What does this fold into?
Amino acid sequence: MNLNVLLVDDSAVMRKMIARALKEGGLAIGEIVEADNGKNGVIQAKYREKELSLILSDINMPEMGGIDFVREVRKIPFLIRTPVIMITTEARVETIATAKDAGANGYITKPFTSERIREKVLEVFKELGVKECPISRS
Amino acid sequence: MSDLAVVIPHEELGRYLAQSVLEMFSTMFASGVTLGASDRADELAPCHGFSAIVGLGGSVRGSVVFQCSAPAARRFTELMTGEAPGPGDQLLQDGVGEIGNILAGGLKKQLDSTGVNVSISVPTVVEGKPHQVSASGNTPWTVLSFRSEGEPILAAARIVHT
It folds into this structure.
C-alpha cells in the first residue's frame, strides 16, 4: 500500500521538507497533495477524500489554522478515521490536548528528523489498527 | 505595562537562545555551530542579508530575530528542501522565515516550561542591504552571535512581561 498524503503548511519550504522526510524515512509514499492553509486543505480533502491515507498539518497558519482544519476534516465522511498528525512549533500541553479533541491522532514538534516522522506515522497507524504497513519495499 | 518590567534575565534568555539554536542546527541541518557569548545591545546592527522577525505575545511582549547572509540563506534552504534555490527565489525568504519560526518555537517551549505563557506570530522576513531591525521601548536585545560553515549568523530576542 502506498500512502497518499495531504500536507498542509503555509511554508513552501516546510512542505518540501516534510515530503522529503516522508520519502527518506522509508515510508511507501504515493501521491503528495499540498495546501498552504487550512481552508485550502479542506478543499483538497473534500476533493480527494477517497484517495487520502494520511494527513499532516501545521497548526499556526493564516486563513484557517490546523485545529479548525482538523475539525472540518473530521466532518468529511471518508476521512473520519484517516490518520491526522500535526507538525508544529506549538508544543504546549493544552494545544496538544485541543488538537486531539479536534480529531488529531498524533503530534510532532519542529525541528524534526525523517526518523521522527517515520516513527510517529507507524505509531499512529498501529494505534488506529491500520493493518497495511506503509513501509517502502524498495 | 512598562519596559521596566523585564523579568527574563539576559543570561537566562541567552541560554534559551543558545539551546534553541543548537537543537535546530543539530536536528535540521546536521551541522555544527560555533556559539559566541550572548551580549546585550540597545539596537541590532544593520543586516546585509536576511532577517526573520517573529513577534511574541501572551503574557509577554517582544520579538525574536534571526539574521544571516544570502549565501547562508541559500545553504540552509537547500539543506531543508534538497533543492538549490536560485537568486531571488521565493523559497529563500520562506526558508529563513521557517528558521525564525523554529527558533522562536524553541524559545517559546523553554519559556512555557517555566510557566511563562507565550504565543508566537507568523514570521516576517526582510531582505535587502543594508536594513536594520528595531523595536520601540528601552528593553535591550539579548544577542547571540554564532557561525555555521564559517558564515556569521545572529539570533536575538527582546522580551518584556505584560
Q: What stands out?
A: Chain A has one domain: 3-127. Chain A touches chain B through 21 residues (CB under 8 Å). The first helix of chain A runs from residue 12 to 24. Residues 8 and 40 of chain A are 8 Å apart (CA to CA).
